[in-house]
Every structure is written in structure tokens, then in C-alpha cells.
Amino acid sequence: MERGENKMALIKPIRTTKKLDANGGEEEALLMSPTSRTFHEPNYNLYVLAILGWKVPINVDAMKAEIQSKLLKHPRFSSLQVIDESDDSRNMKWIPTTVNLDDHVIVPDLKPNPNNMDTDKLVEDYISNLSAVSIDMSKPLWDLHILNVKTSHAEATCIFRLHHSIGDGVSLVSLLLSCFRKSSDPTSLPTLLVSSSSSSKGKSNLSNNRGSIWSLMWQYLVKLWSCISLLFNTVVDVPMFVATALFLKDSQSPFTVPQGFKSSTRLRFVYRTVSLDDIKFIKNLTNSTVNDVILGITQAALSRYVHRKYEIEGKRKFSPQKMRCRASVVMNLRPLLGVQAVAEMIEKNAVVIQGNCFGFYIIPLSISQLDNPLDYVLKAKTTMDRKKHSLESRCTFYFSQLLVKLFGFERCF
Fold this sequence. Notes:
The protein is an alpha+beta fold and 413 residues long. The protein has helices at 5-9, 34-38, 60-69, 119-129, 169-177, 197-208, 213-246, 276-286, 290-313, 339-347, 374-388, 392-412, and strands spanning 30-31, 47-54, 79-83, 92-96, 105-106, 142-147, 156-163, 326-332, 358-364. It has a four-stranded mixed β-sheet with strand order 2-7-6-5, with no helix packed on it. The chain has a three-stranded antiparallel β-sheet with strand order 1-4-3, with no helix packed on it. A two-stranded antiparallel sheet has the order 8-9. Helix 9 (290-313) packs across helix 11 (374-388). The longest helix is centred in the middle third of the chain and has 34 residues, at 213-246.
């Protein structure tokens, strides 16, 4: 993707196109948060792609009307991101502007090759091509691509592409879901089920044991042990994260980024559709979460790929089990807003997305061959449960904020 500070500096004159508030005055420009500003650095210039399949062809005019009435009420979808050159720290600001939906809603004329009617690959290639093209900085950094092409999975496909500086994934998902309605009841918002079995069980046990001094002592001991384990996990994880950032690298493997790799290199998106019912079945069977199941599937796939690759190449002296292979996982640090709350905030013209608020933690990936596929999920659950009981993600968030304030973006990134 094309990136760089020179390009952003050229759009300063666009400030003359400003949105007026209800009183006819210019809306105030807001300063971009340090985390959002980070996503404009060359090595962190990220986009979020949301791919949605539809059971019916998409009505473009109706889609534009929904965007006009909902998304554009949020200032981040109707503001430019401009560098403040009057400030030596080169901070960026949100500059309100008037949005032309025709510049953001793209409906390409995709015509399948008569000799090859593989529309799945046609859509896949189109999505992959988006990774080679960045959004023009002279307009708000989001767009919607509507592909009214029938595939094996859907009658039509749309791709939301948003720059990560607009917001984190949790905020964007909540905002996106608030724009939809249930197919069974077009007037009702989608619902997100929240499990409360564990909390209700704990309350019932507490009420049954209330009045017993032994149960009270036991609760204090459990809380004390929980605090000790939290402190221990944090003391271990944070130095490991710092060591990884400075010198501790992963083993050379097919997943290692090669020397000379540029972030502008074109990437290809290859995706597969899996049954959510199957994922939930495994989740309930192993008493885990959906993310645990996905991580277990990832570990199983990587393990089989590595072992098969090294067997083919004849590298039998190398043991994949000794390979150091890790992944960075993003942890949301902001309380999740419900879909109903987000919809009400949109109606009141309140700010829904408060920026990016997340931290990182590193998880080891087990590259091993296990006889029982469920063991991959159980190992993933054990790893994730331990990482959740650590302050690594919060420490990385505040530590990165401190570095930016002390040394600035140019020195840190």
C-alpha cells in the first residue's frame, strides 16, 4: 500500500472544506489519539476489512440511505485526517468535512470470464486487490464495495474497508451491527447473547454458604491466590514481551517474515467458510470459547503444515516441536457496548467510537502432532485462560502511550 508522511502533508489545503454545525459555525477539529496516530506509521498502516455475504442482491440506493442516516452521524466517518504542521510533534487532527457517498460506495462491474465462471475466485481476487490500493487521504478513510455477483456462499457480497485509525474492532463491530435488523423482525436490533451461568452459580453458592466463617475464609484465600497468580503472570509476561520486541525472535520457519519484506508487498486473502454450529458444538464440548476453538484450529493447521513440509524437504534432523512460534493477540480494554446502546447513541448523535483502546499479548503456538484433534483446543484454552489472568495487555498499552509521549512517533516507529 502506498504510505508516507509526504503524502499526508500534501492534503493540508483540504481543511478549507469544512462542515458547518447547527449554528452555521465551523465544527471544531479534534486531536487524534496516540494509538490512532500510530496506525499512520509505515509499519503499522492497517486497514480493517469486513466481508459480508447476502442472501439477496444488494439494493445500492437503500444501502446509501442507511449509511447516510446512521454511519455518517458519527464524526469519524465524516472527517479528514490531517497532520497539524503548526505543531512540532506533527500530531494529526480530525477535520469535519462534507461526505460525497459516491466517492465511498463503489459498485464495480464484475463480469466473469465466459471460459471460467469461477465467481468465488473472482470475488477473492477482488478482495485481494484491495490490499494493494490505499484509500485516498483527501476523503474520510473508509469505503464500501458492493459486489452483486453470485458465489457458492451468497447471492451478493459487500466489503467494508476502514482504516484502523477510525476505531478498534470491538467498536466497529458494535457500530456495524447497530445498522442491521433481524430477518424475523425487521424492527428489532440483533442481539448478542451473554453467558451468565457462571455468575449466577457463584451467587447461589455464596448465598448458600453465607454465615459460615469457613466459607468466608475460603473466599479470601481464593481471592488472595488469584491476586498472587495475576501478579506472577504479569511479572513473567511483561519482560517476555519486552525481550521479544528487542531481541528474542521466533525460529526460522515458513511463517517467518523474510529479510527485505516491505509492508507495501501485495497480500492475498484466502478464506474458507466454516459452520458456526460446528464451532459452537466444539466450544460446548470443551467448555471453551469461540476464540479458543479458532486458536486450536489454527494450531492444528500450522502443525500439520510444518510437519508435512519438513518431511517433504527431508529435514529430519530438525524437530518442529522445538520451534519457537508465537502470535500477537489484540485484547480490547474498553467495556463492550451493547447493540441497543449503540443504536440509541446514534439516534442521539452521540459519539459511538471513542478511538482505539487495546493492548497486546504474545501467545506461544504449539507446533506438535496430537492424536486427538480436541487436544489442540484444550491447549489453546489453557494458554488463553492464563493470558487473560495477566495485566500484560494493559501494561503494553500504557507503555506504548508513554513511549510516544516521551520520544514522539518518529523515534518510536
